[in-house]
Amino acid sequence: MTSLRIVVMLTLGSACGPRPVVGGEVRLEDGARSGVGSPQTEAGVDAPADANVDADVVLARTSSEAPPPLPEPPASNGAVSGTSFWQGAKPEERPGRRIGIAEARASDWVGPRRAEFWGLEDVIVVAVPVTETGKQRARNARSWPDGDGLRCDHRVCPNYVTLASGDRLALTNSTASPVEWELVRDGRVVLRVAIDARRFAPAYVDIDGLAAGVYGVRESASGEQVGWVYRSATDELAVGPTRGSLCRFSLSLSPGTYRLVAWHPDLESQEHLVEVKPRRIQRFNPVFSEAQIRP
């Protein structure tokens, strides 16, 4: 039986710093989908003790029902697609920081020809509409990666970055031990979830009341911070985190002007303004390096 608890949420926001990136445009032929390639199937704040946990605790609604498959996007949509890159030598590992890199295709690289580059994991890409037309949600949109929730398996427990959008957060645990995590913001626990061992089918926790912004994830037993959750705002369309061998992403959007933000918890965010047009793919390839590491 899966146990889940949710407490009063705090209002917050995420910080994004502007930084130039390379953009471009590709026209879609008739019948083409507004995306590049195919979705990746490979998954990739200390706070006081319980004395500071908000007192009003309610039972979160859960469900094992998976969301329905996404339909094909209509021809009126445009798209923003790209790859998140790391330029330079592999970063050193440090406690409390994870900058995961992977192989990337040379054909995706848009930087200096002789530069050392890698695909960068755990990047969330956010599109914020600037014009009224962009505020209209794309119908039957297909965007990816669309997040995989908080998960625990033999490789990672939990995943370092989790995207929380919509009104539910998926939880899975394929290990032989139960786990319990806390979401922390500004020194307060705002959400605590526990999931039994060998819970292969996702359980879903209601996060409709969770304010937009960035939360730290820590283990309840040890108090150690083990990851991050990016809770997207209602006016944002977010995809990620980037994972796997390519670190690609694609956003299907209504025509209009958007502010694009590439976010990583340990790196300064990158920002780019783009005009989305029907049946066209705009390129957004954020390139991070040692200079963007947060102190």
Describe the structure.
- The chain is mainly β and 295 residues long.
- The protein has one domain.
- It is built from no helices and 22 strands.
- It has strands at residues 4-6, 22-27, 58-59, 78-83, 85-87, 101-102, 117-120, 124-129, 150-152, 161-164, 168-173, 179-185, 188-195, 199-206, 213-219, 225-231, 237-239, 248-253, 256-264, 267-276, 280-285, 287-288.
- The protein starts with a strand and ends in a 7-residue tail after the last strand.
- 43% of the residues are buried.
- Residues 1-73 have low confidence and may be disordered.
- The share of residues in helices is under 10%
What string, H for helix and E for strand, traces the elements in order? EEEEEEEEEEEEEEEEEEEEEE
Mean pLDDT across every amino acid position: 78
Low-confidence stretches: 1-73
